[in-house]
Amino acid sequence: MSVTYEPNDPNLPLILPRSALHSEIYQPVCSLVDYVNSLFEEGFSPDTVLRDFVDLYYLDFYDAQVRNGGHSQFIHNSFDNLFSNLERAERAAKMIGFPKLANLVHRCHTFCINNPEETAEQNGFSQRAAELDDLDNELYKFEYTPEERALAFKSLPPDKAEIFLSKFTFDRLEETAESVKKAALLLIKTKTPEEAANDAVKLAKSLIEQRESKRLDPSSEYFEGAVARQTKRLTRKIRSALDSLQKGEEAPDIASKVIEHISDAELYDLSPYHIHSAIWIAGHSNLKLVSSEDWMQEISAVANSTTFANQEQTARKLYKLNQVVLKHRHYAIAETLGKLATQSTVSPLYKTTIDIIKINDRLNDVKVIEIVPDGILLLHETRGVVSVYTAQLNPLYQLRSKFSNFLKRLKLISSEREQQLLAQTSMVVPGKKLAFGMATSGIPELLYDLHLPEALLLWSPELEGLDTFHEGNLEDFDFSTKSFVWRFLSKDEIIIVEGNRQEVRIFNEKNEQEAIYPTSRLRETRQEYSKMLKRFGSL
């Protein structure tokens, strides 16, 4: 029996890569953020993902923003979602067992309510409220001692607790540190501080590898480089101690330096927030750890078994098509090229822009376009008026070409210089004006009223091949009979779309496949997604 999920389903799995718990302390919540983002892409929304996951998602946004640019930046970057972000962040801080952070979020919330004008002015840079800066400083001071950190991790089941506690324990740490110290003090008698440090640090290789393996997979392509960087850093610390010793100054204990470097907490992001979020995630009953290779496949499986997510995805696609039909700016070009159609010939279809040239002050930014059937036209648009010309070879270009070729044969200029000279003049210039025109008012509304977006969605549910629809031609339209004919190029195949009050017909000229969608069906499709479309904004 297949599993299905409802909006805000308490059984929604928390699917994370298995490596999330075995990397840095901050990685579990980073992976949760990636998971929620992936669900959003698959058709979920903040209102349909399990609320606990979404709340922690927004708490992570709060923490990241405040650490980067303070509460002022968080407020600015929250835009219209400020108060919902604060509510979710405060709820999440309580949920993960971090009341101090919840209190901080609450005080930020109170400031925003009591100071609406000052809140609106915050930008994280020139406009920063002193009260918010005080909140920043409090958050930056949150810190756990190693003992507090260990106690927190021990709240997890033993197997999970050990995953995190092992990140801060190292085999033979003190013993190896003492060996490095003894070797360094012996070597400095016959070698320079740099040579002695380079040789002594080799004894710490196993410790450095242990340290890096707690945040990187040893088989990773980055592992050796990370080990080499940490080796250099530890070498510098040992050399510094030996320099001081040679100068008769008080030298730091080399063994202590080794221990400090290997177990230095600053090498990990050990903020209490990341500790609490990692513990909450690791202990969640819905946690499902999978391989990195299977992660996206598992998420897609969840979305595919969720009816509302599939509906949301479809609604987003229909909204995109509505935008293309109602708001794109190609209609003037579409109509003008469409005028070139006759009873015996079809209009040329835009394929790509080859170049943009300047003929004179009046004809500036003229597009040299490749068309189907094979050929080249010149297209110029200014103040909504589109003109289409034939392309003819520029006599001046021909003259320069002959002259520069002559100079090159005499070895007076190089091939590179020849190209530079030719680039100063366009190869083609406008010939005969074939057509000109402006966009007719009401065309977008006509296509929309005849349910063109819904027909395109039913014809290509994944919108495959529709990215060039807006570059097509409007070959015919009639407001009185409510009809239109649109031609466009889809993956080098010509598609004809004909619409009227009764139906929309889509025909592929190459394979002669035809799809006919009755208006009644198209109307039902629009009604089915109308409520969802309203959430995306006005059309």
Explained architecture:
- The protein has 539 residues and is of the alpha+beta class.
- It has four domains: 14-143 and 271-305, A middle domain of Talin 1 (Up-down Bundle); 168-267, no CATH class; 311-330 and 441-535, no CATH class; 348-437, no CATH class.
- It is built from 23 helices and twelve strands.
- A five-stranded antiparallel β-sheet has the order 3-4-5-6-7. Strands 8-9-10-11-12 form a five-stranded antiparallel β-sheet. Strands 1-2 form a two-stranded parallel ribbon.
- The longest helix is centred in the first third of the chain and has 28 residues, at 51-78.
Describe the protein's topology:
Layout: E1 14-17, H1 27-41, H2 51-78, H3 82-95, H4 99-114, H5 116-121, H6 130-141, H7 146-153, H8 158-165, H9 173-187, H10 193-200, H11 205-213, H12 223-246, H13 254-263, H14 272-282, E2 287-290, H15 295-304, H16 307-327, H17 331-338, E3 349-357, E4 366-372, E5 375-382, E6 385-393, H18 395-409, H19 415-423, E7 428-437, H20 443-449, H21 452-459, E8 473-478, E9 483-490, E10 493-499, E11 503-508, E12 514-518, H22 519-528, H23 530-535
Parallel strand pairs: 1-2
Antiparallel strand pairs: 3-4, 4-5, 5-6, 6-7, 8-9, 9-10, 10-11, 11-12
In brief:
With 539 residues, this protein is an alpha+beta fold.
Could you name the key traits of this structure?
alpha+beta, 23 helices, five-stranded antiparallel beta sheet, A middle domain of Talin 1, 539 residues, 52% helix, 15% strand, single chain
